[in-house]
Amino acid sequence: MMKSIRGMNDVLPDDIWKWQKLESVLLKLLNSFNYKEIRTPILEKTDVFVRGVGENTDIVEKEIYLFDDRNGESICLRPEGTAGVIRACIEHGLVAQHTCKLWYLGNMFRYERPQKGRQRQFYQLGVEYLGENSYICEIELLVMQSRLWKELDICSQAKLHINSIGGNETRKSYKEALVRYYHNYFDELDSDSQRRLTTNPLRILDSKNAKTQALFERAPKLIDFMSNIELDRFDNIKKALNELGIEYIVDYSLVRGLDYYNDFVFEWKLTELLGAQNTICAGGRYDFLTKQFDYKEVPAVGFAIGIDRLLLALGESKASFLSNEPKVCDIFFACLGTQAQVKGIAIREEIMEKMPHIKTHLEVGKSTLKNMLKKSNQIMADYAIIIGENELEKNTVQIKALKIDKFSKESLSYVQQEIDFCKVVDYIAKIYLIK
């Protein structure tokens, strides 16, 4: 039996409504903050991510899906969204004259060991604010995220972790101090951290190895290397968060795994959900990424949300957001025979012309009326429109109410009525109070 590739999962019809509901909330929120959608290709030249994400990051070294195309050019499946968005903005001149507030939603790909909350193909929402240097940009994004957690009913479980990793010169001095410190304890480091000591020493700080974490307690702290300007910026962000009532944890081990970040970085974690993969949203400032593409410096800040992981968390938290599955069907057409089915299609078209929001289902095949009505109950339809040989001869339909408790019981005729073809649409419109 053919199966999907490991770590690349199907989303089945019984679950897709959860995705659609979440996406509709996200779209509404982004529109309210006046962010515009951008769509970039799933395939990019490998150099986009080698330059943008960083040659010595785990993504480029171990996780990227890359191959040569038929012309011998190295291309890859996008492992994240920001670098591709920056490439598009430079290529099409979007950041040449004005600020850009953009969002995207789509597939990303990383070759990792699949586990709960981490797949090789995953869906990600990204938001980018390009062209402004003010720390108010960070505040706007954090307020947006905080509002989202409230709407999803997980506000009490989402914990904001923040840090400042300073500018390029600050990090350069700090990396040198880190390398000197960890060289003294080289044999006590885990193998990944030993490798990172010569390639990307900052990544040692977020190692999950217990011994390496213990060493960090005595390691130099980046905040001690930061300039007064960098410290003031971080203090201003904390003051604004305090004023807005957004709680946070200052986490000096938080550095993020992409080389393009500078100054402010953050993560939202669900500490009681998802186990090890409990970060549902993360991002920060990246003022120098455009220079990696041989373009002028453009200040920028952004974040990404893992949609798969967020939905998994919503399910675990039993949030009210996912408590009610949307109605599957309003009107079920039970048409006996092909002629009746053609007539049912014609009537359905008239109904949809006047009431496009009405959900309909037309059963095709040679099933009996009893089985059709059984299915109409399974998909929770409000009404069944029945058309058989007798109805075709008389140019009528039978309209049967399937949820009797919703309707008046004064007259049994209201439960099922015979209606002329030409009056069906008006009858349905009256039921659903359409004028």
Task: Briefly summarize what is shown.
With 435 residues, the protein is α+β, with helices and mostly antiparallel strands. It has helices at 13-32, 46-52, 58-63, 82-91, 136-151, 168-183, 191-199, 210-216, 228-244, 307-317, 338-354, 369-378, 389-394, 424-431, and strands at residues 36-37, 43-45, 65-68, 74-77, 100-109, 121-130, 158-164, 249-250, 262-270, 279-285, 300-306, 331-335, 360-362, 383-387, 396-401, 416-420. It has an eight-stranded mixed beta sheet with strand order 1-5-6-11-10-9-7-8.
Topology:
Elements: H1 13-32, E1 36-37, E2 43-45, H2 46-52, H3 58-63, E3 65-68, E4 74-77, H4 82-91, E5 100-109, E6 121-130, H5 136-151, E7 158-164, H6 168-183, H7 191-199, H8 210-216, H9 228-244, E8 249-250, E9 262-270, E10 279-285, E11 300-306, H10 307-317, E12 331-335, H11 338-354, E13 360-362, H12 369-378, E14 383-387, H13 389-394, E15 396-401, E16 416-420, H14 424-431
Helix pairs in contact: 5-9, 11-14
